Structures are given as structure tokens and as C-alpha cells.
């Protein structure tokens, strides 16, 4: 199919691209049309045209970083708003848009790209893999009695998300995000979030932890069903953003949320799959985890730089043969150890494509799981355990940011 991919350069073009995306997604909330371009980073939205002025597909991204094992913030593209009009799907346009984006990433020196996928069978064909998962955690307030040894945490206070200063405070706290899988939240993200709250029928409450000037966590929550709130016997809140940069903030904010009058349930969504919140209570059945789902879809844009950016556990080494049909410069063999990463011509221990490597990159999936599913080729059985040891983490990766 004849098409042209262009970088969109003016506000009207960007506004049309968002209309295309929302039409493709069908059910997403629409922002105010006069403000659409304010939520997009200039120069990072591309469009697919099938005639000189007929825009039928789009994709966008933000300049961002991702925290990888070892604590380094690696440059990445946060890919978003990928969509093709229903009249033009199944014609290769989404692939053309994503390829264009990845080539842009290379030109900008972005080592990674990540996204949140609306469908689970699309992005693997372009080298993306599921690198982290999340869960929904529900706490029964009447049953949630803290154990005696659980720390109390510090001071908390409510803030007003309608005030720009309080919005900026949350953004400042988030700069301390220090867990594997965390990504940057640029100013465009915060502006879009504030606008969507304005359009929402629900009231959003926010509480921060820590004394003024030294805040280290926040939680944003809404009533689960405000329409039935007055007569309900099962009132709950949904905490859609729970950010803590210290364990003290983690305990302090949880205690606050469970102390709010009238509540029977507190729902934290999203949360890491290994949150272990149930261990805090005398009755562990007060906590139910469900709704586990994929979160971070990761793409290694520059495999050598990505592998070299994270740390590995000693001892041992493994030789990975990586195949990348889209960005062929990534294809090759890599010797990985705690001492670093280097290309090699030695025989491989494991052969895999770049999307499967993305699954294991943050430590969220182990190589043995991929091998058991027939998704990678293992040439030396003993090296499978070595690879899992090298890439393994104490905690599961977690993004925590929808974009």
C-alpha cells in the first residue's frame, strides 16, 4: 500500500493525529480539542498518510528514561498513541510507524523504547517483549490489623490537585523514583494527567508523606463508585498512583489509607506483583491480589548499549546470540558477565530474538521460563541457570506509570 510517514510539525496536525488515535481506540476519553497539542512533545509525533493530506495512522513518544538493574537511568522513548483508522488496518501501516520511531530512537541515542499495549499480540513482531507485570491489590479494611513490628511511617497531609503548586510537588517527589522499571514522567505527562482529572466526574484526592521540603511519597485516590456512596455498605477507594521512594513513606501512606473513615476496601492498582503487603497484617487473608496483567512492553533499540547499561550478579558468564530482523545492527553474539558486556565470535550458549531478550532484560522473566515455552534455543543446558543467575533480581521490576 502506498503511504508516507511524516513527522508532524504544527498544532493542527498533532490535533488531527490524536483524533485518529482516539478513533482507533474507540472508547477512550477525549481531551479538550483546543489543548490536545499541549500534551505532546514537539517533533515526536509521526503520521501515516495514504494521500497527500489524508492522515490515517499515527504514533507518538516522549523523551524519557528507564531505571535498569544497577540504578542507571537509561535514555528511552516512551511510545504512546499508536493507532490506525479502522478503515486502514491490516495494511502494514502500524509497522511502518513503529519502524520509523525506532529509527528516530537510534538517531537520538535512545537505548530503549517502551509502551503499554492495548492488545497483547501486536508488538512482539517488532521486537518488543513483556518486561514487567502488575497486579491489583485489594485490602479489606476491617480485617487489616497491622502486626506489632510494622513501622508507623511519618507525617502525611492532604494536598489539592487543582493547585499548580501541589501538582508540581508530586512531580518533584516522583523525581526520586528509584525502582527497577521506573520511567521518567515528563512535563507533558503531568499536564495531560491534570487535564484528564478535570474532565473526570470523580473527585481525586491526594496525600503526601513527609515534612514540607522533604516529602518522599504520595498517593492519589478516588471513590470506587461515588453514585452509590451514601447508601453503600461496601465503600471503597481506588489508589491509582502510589509512589514511595522510602520504606518509611510506604508504611506511612498505607496506614493513612487504611485509617480513612467509612471505607470497607482499599484497592491499589497498579502494584508490583511481589508487593508482599499481606505480610504486614495479622490476618493475611485481608489482602487479595488479582487482575495480574502485562505492563511494560520493552524494546532494546541498541542491544549492546542496553546490555552494558545494567549490572549482573557474579560469578559466571553467558554468550547470547541475539537476532533482530528489524534493526539488523543488533544481530550478533554478546558475552555477558559481571565484568561487562562485549561482542564475541565464540559459540553461543543461548540463541534468542531481541523481543525474548527484552522479556528477561529487567529480570521480570527468567530464561528457563522462555526455554520451557520453546521461545529460545539453549545450546548448553548448564548455561541456562548461569543466565538466570546473572540477570536475576531480588525484586520484580515495576513501572507504575500509564502513558
UniProtKB/TrEMBL annotation:
Q: Where does acetyl-CoA bind?
A: 82-84, 90-95, 118-119
> PROSITE patterns this protein is in?
GNAT
> Which parts of the sequence belong to the N-acetyltransferase domain?
3-148
The regions listed as transmembrane in this protein's record are none
Q: Which UniProt keywords apply?
A: Acyltransferase, Transferase
Top-level lineage group? Bacteria
Q: What is its EC number?
A: 2.3.1.-
- What are the positions of the active site? 123, 403
Pfam families hit by this protein:
Acetyltransf_17, Acetyltransf_9, SCP2_2
The keyword Transferase appears for this protein: yes
Q: Does the keyword Acyltransferase apply?
A: yes
NCBIfam families found in the cross-reference section: PRK01346.1-4 (NF002367)
Record family assignment = Belongs to the acetyltransferase Eis family.
Q: State whether it acts alone or in a complex, and with which partners, per the record.
A: Homohexamer; trimer of dimers.
- Name this polypeptide is given: GNAT family N-acetyltransferase
Amino acid at each position: 500500500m502506498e503511504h508516507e510517514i511524516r513527522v508532524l510539525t504544527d498544532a493542527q496536525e498533532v490535533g488531527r493525529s490524536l483524533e485518529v488515535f482516539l478513533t482507533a481506540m474507540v472508547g477512550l476519553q477525549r481531551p479538550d480539542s483546543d489543548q490536545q497539542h499541549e500534551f505532546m512533545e514537539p517533533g515526536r509525533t509521526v503520521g501515516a498518510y495514504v494521500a497527500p493530506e489524508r492522515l490515517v495512522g499515527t504514533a507518538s513518544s516522549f523523551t524519557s528514561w528507564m531505571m535498569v538493574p544497577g540504578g542507571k537511568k537509561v535514555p528511552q522513548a516512551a511510545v504512546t498513541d499508536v493507532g490506525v483508522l479502522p478503515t486502514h488496518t491490516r495494511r502494514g501501516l502500524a509497522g511502518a510507524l513503529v519502524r520509523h520511531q525506532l529509527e528516530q530512537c537510534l538517531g537520538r541515542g535512545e537505548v530503549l523504547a517502551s509502551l503499554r499495549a492495548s492488545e497483547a499480540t501486536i508488538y512482539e513482531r517488532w521486537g518488543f517483549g513483556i518486561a514487567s507485570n502488575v497486579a491489583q491489590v485489594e485490602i479489606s479494611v476491617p480485617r487489616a490489623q497491622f502486626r506489632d513490628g510494622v513501622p508507623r511511617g511519618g507525617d502525611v497531609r492532604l494536598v489539592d490537585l487543582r493547585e499548580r503548586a501541589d501538582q508540581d510537588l508530586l512531580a518533584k517527589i516522583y523525581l526520586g523514583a528509584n525502582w527497577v522499571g521506573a520511567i521518567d514522567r515528563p512535563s507533558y505527562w503531568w499536564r495531560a494527567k491534570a487535564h484528564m482529572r478535570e474532565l473526570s466526574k470523580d473527585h481525586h484526592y491526594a496525600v503526601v508523606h513527609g515534612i514540607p521540603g522533604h516529602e518522599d511519597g504520595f498517593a492519589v485516590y478516588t471513590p470506587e463508585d461515588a453514585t452509590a456512596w451514601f447508601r453503600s455498605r461496601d465503600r471503597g477507594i481506588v489508589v491509582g498512583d502510589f509512589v514511595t521512594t522510602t520504606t518509611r513513606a510506604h508504611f506511612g501512606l498505607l496506614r493513612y489509607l487504611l485509617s480513612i473513615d467509612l471505607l470497607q476496601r482499599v484497592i491499589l492498582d497498579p502494584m508490583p506483583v511481589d508487593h508482599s503487603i499481606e505480610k504486614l497484617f495479622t490476618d493475611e487473608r485481608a489482602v487479595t491480589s488479582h487482575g495480574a496483567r502485562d505492563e511494560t512492553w520493552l524494546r532494546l533499540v541498541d542491544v549492546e548499549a542496553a546490555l552494558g547499561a545494567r549490572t549482573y550478579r557474579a560469578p559466571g558468564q553467558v554468550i547470547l546470540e541475539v537476532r533482530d530482523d528489524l534493526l539488523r545492527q543488533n544481530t550478533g553474539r554478546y558475552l555477558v558477565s559481571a565484568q561487562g558486556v562485549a561482542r564475541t565470535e565464540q559459540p553461543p550458549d543461548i540463541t534468542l530474538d531481541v523481543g525474548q531478550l527484552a522479556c528477561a532484560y529487567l529480570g521480570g522473566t527468567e530464561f528457563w521460563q522462555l526455554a520451557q515455552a520453546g521461545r529460545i534455543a539453549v545450546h548448553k543446558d548448564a548455561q541456562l541457570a548461569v543466565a538466570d543467575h546473572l540477570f536475576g533480581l531480588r525484586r520484580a521490576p515495576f513501572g507504575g506509570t500509564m502513558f
